[in-house]
Each structure stands twice: as structure tokens, then as C-alpha cells.
């Protein structure tokens, strides 16, 4: 079955929906039981979808968890109040003082800060590695290395990793392999077939899809599900059923939204490629993007998020480009229906295992669901302002 078909029916078990189409909001903290027997049964089965206490979730959560687990291809999904909480929840569920973590150099910046600021203080050591390291990862594995963390494509600079090679070497050393899979969403790759143990989504992005909810998911395979679920529960991680409802509503249209984001972004990227100001395109579907061959092999489609590098430019000229756009708004995050633009400076500050040439400015776009011709006209006007400011 194709993923677009699957997302229509996932998580719609009548056990949770009572027959209505989309799982409704079921609000709860306390459950009351009539008998000791019922209470003991719920306690014993609290991790298996029996209502027990609000923090463990209710039908709205169970339905959405089942949906994401099935789409990602794992056995269970833990929910978190943000993508960042899913990352910290997964890492802290498997790392303790004295352990060593291998973290991709192109990780989402707050993930890097978590390692350098919070986890370092807990006595967890991090080594950053080049996203293109491939089989070279084995030289960085130490006796106390416990987790290999990937993010593919990398944040901002979009390098695509050789996930199957990295995962298979990690497993020879019994590491837990975690992947920030947000760019692929749950429909454009098969993380568990590539050897990933825990696949993380910032559901805030394409799953929610409407820029109005923060949420994260971490999906585990059989071997890692119990530990992920229990430790995340111990850290008090839970989500509001209203937010989960919106995420599961967003999920139903993920297939068509992704197709349109991809089509629009490819049109914009192809236009950018012909611009004299542009050095190269960092879109996984373009051969100028590092790891492009892994994109071709491991992903079924792209989406609306990519970057491009300018031949030259300074703060003033890039500012002239990105300010006063009609459709591309300046803001963090991505994955909603709207277009966004970021002029990114200081990439060298958030890279330690690789080098980034900061002389050439990078622009990141999230191409939304507007008509791409309007977006191209918007960028064309932006380049006119850019060239004016460069003079
Ligand atoms: C946005 C993002 C996150 C964090 O998600 P939040 O919900 O904003 O905390 C993590 N990883 C990637 C790749 C992201 O783009």
C-alpha cells in the first residue's frame, strides 16, 4: 500500500474513534475505577493502551501514536510537547553519565546546544562527526559510545547521510541509532528498513502542517520501545489531546501537501539555478547537494525546504533581499502551508567537525502552497534589491 493511501486509514481503529472518522478530542487526567480488579488490570496494562492516568494518554493519543508508528514503520511512538523534547527525551532515555554520543555536525542547532550545555553537565560526552563520513564513523566509536545520532538532510546546509552504512557499523558496536527524520516526514523514507532504531519527528513541521501546534514524536523498533516509552514517561513527557487532535487532522492531508510543496519547490529551485547571483542549490534532488545519491536511493520524494548559496553578498545586501518580500515571510520553523525565507549567517559557528565557507551567504527557503509563479516574482524583486544594495 502506498503511504498516501495508508495515511487515510492509520490510527482509525474503532476502539479509539467509536466509529467517527477522525479520532475526537478526549480530555482526561484522572480515571476512576469501580473495583480493585479493574484498577489492577489498568495498572498492569497501562503501557498497552489501557486508560490508566492522563499522563499515559487517552484514546486521542493512542490513535495518533498508532498512526505514526505504522507510517514510520516502528512498533511504538512516544509523544512530546515539541520536536526538541522528542530529541532530548530519546537521547536521555538511552544515555547516562560516562557515556559517549556521536552527533552529526549538521544537527539542528538546539540539538547541538543540548549536547554542549545540558548533557555535557551530566557527564555525557559528545563527538561531532562529518555528515558525509560514511564508513569512517568506525574510527570515532569508543568503548563507551552508546548512541549514534543522525539528521538527514542536515539542518540549513542539507547534506544527506548514508544512513544504512552508518547504522550497520553502529550496530556492530551495539550502539543505538537515532535519526531526526523530520525532513522526510513519516511518508518519504523508510527509517527502520535502513537500520534506524529510533526515528524522531518534529511534528510541528509537516505533520501538523498549519504552523499552529508544537509537537514531537519518537518512534522505536521492538528492541528499544520499552526503554524509550518508560524513560520518557518518567521524565513526565506528555501532550494535550487538543494538540494531538490537530496533529492527527493535519496528518490526513500530508500526502497531497507534500506533493504540492515538492512541485512548487522544484520549480522555484530550477529558476534559482539559472540566476547569475546563485552559486549552487542545496536541494537534495539536485546533484550540487552533498549526498544527492543517497537522496535518490533512500527517499521517495522531497518537500518544500531547501537552501541556496550566493556567489557573494554581505549582511546589507542579503538583508535587502530577504526584507520586504511579499510572500516569503521571515521566521523560524517550516512545514506549514506558507512560504518562509531565512538569510543565514554564522554557519561556521555551529560546525566543528566540518568547515563552512562563510564568505558565501546562504538563504534557506520553505516553499509553501502559494502559486510558484508568484513566489518566483517575489524572489526576482528580492534579487533586484540585492543587486542594488551590492553596488
Ligand atoms: C524544528 C526542528 C526540530 C525541533 O522541533 P520543535 O517542535 O520546534 O521543537 C528538530 N529537528 C529539526 C530537523 C527541525 O527542523
From TrEMBL:
Pfam families tied to this protein: Cys_Met_Meta_PP
**Keyword hit for Lyase:** yes
Superkingdom of the source species:
Bacteria
Q: What is its EC number?
A: 4.4.1.8
GO biological process assignments: L-cysteine catabolic process to pyruvate; transsulfuration
* Catalytically driven reaction(s): L,L-cystathionine + H2O = L-homocysteine + pyruvate + NH4(+); an S-substituted L-cysteine + H2O = a thiol + pyruvate + NH4(+)
Q: Which UniProt keywords apply?
A: Lyase, Pyridoxal phosphate
Question: What's a single GO MF annotation on this record?
Answer: pyridoxal phosphate binding
- Give residues where N6-(pyridoxal phosphate)lysine occurs: 205
Pathway involvement of the protein, from the record: Amino-acid biosynthesis; L-methionine biosynthesis via de novo pathway; L-homocysteine from L-cystathionine: step 1/1
Group of enzyme by EC: lyase
KW Glycoprotein (keyword) present? no
Give the required cofactors.
Answer: pyridoxal 5'-phosphate
Q: Which family does it belong to?
A: Belongs to the trans-sulfuration enzymes family.
Q: Which NCBIfam families match?
A: cysta_beta_ly_B (TIGR01324), PRK09028.1 (NF006538)
Query: By what name is this protein known?
Result: Cystathionine beta-lyase
What species was this sequence derived from? Shewanella hanedai
